[in-house]
Amino acid sequence: MWRKFSEVKKLETVLLNEIIEKTATFTSEERQSLIKLLQEQENKPKANGGKGYVHPNTIWIKKHHAEYAGKYVALKDGELVAVGNTIKEVDLKAKEKKVEKPLLTYLFPLDEVPFGGW
Question: Which of 36, 65, 97, 116 has its CA 20 to 30 A from that of 10?
Answer without folding.
Answer: 36
